[in-house]
Amino acid sequence: MYTGDILFQQITPENADAFEGNAVEYLGGLDELQTDPIASPFFAEVTEFTGHVPPLFFNVGASESILGDSVHVAQIAAQAGVDVILDVYHAMWHVSLG
Questions:
Q1: Model pTM score
Q2: What range does the domain containing 34 cover?
Q3: Where do the Alpha/beta hydrolase fold-3 domain residues begin and end (predicted)?
Q4: Could you tell me if 37 and 43 are in contact, meaning their C-beta atoms sit under 8 angstroms apart?
């Protein structure tokens, strides 16, 4: 039985293009913002989490595609002294509501 992220059972060029297209659309069509730490904290450095950053709370599935991204951001923020809670749920995958 497959327990990974259901969206990524088969990554095809079409899926990759669609995901990138969604990201660029979210960024107002500005492709260069995909690696901007304001748009994506994954690309932030420890120094960008210093100052007045509120506590961060992550809920992430152990089988979802963005588990590593969530852990990375939580670790960088914690290194900067931010209060971080990271809950990882076994056998769960990503669900978008909205």
A1: 0.78
A2: 6-89
A3: 25-95
A4: yes
pLDDT digits (tens, 9 = 90+) for 59-98: 998 888 788 999 999 999 999 999 999 999 987 877 666 5
**Residues 13-38: b if buried by 16+ CB within 10 A, e if exposed:** eeeeeeeeeeeeeeeeeeeeeeeeee
Asked whether residue 98 is domain-assigned, the answer is no
pLDDT digits (tens, 9 = 90+) for 28-57: 999 999 999 999 999 999 999 998 899 999
Among 70, 50, 51, smallest CA distance to 60 is for 70
Structure tokens at 30: 């500005």
Domain for residue 47, yes or no? yes
Domain count, the chain: 1
Task: Give phi and psi for 88, each to the nearest 5.
Answer: -115, 125
- Any domain includes 95: no
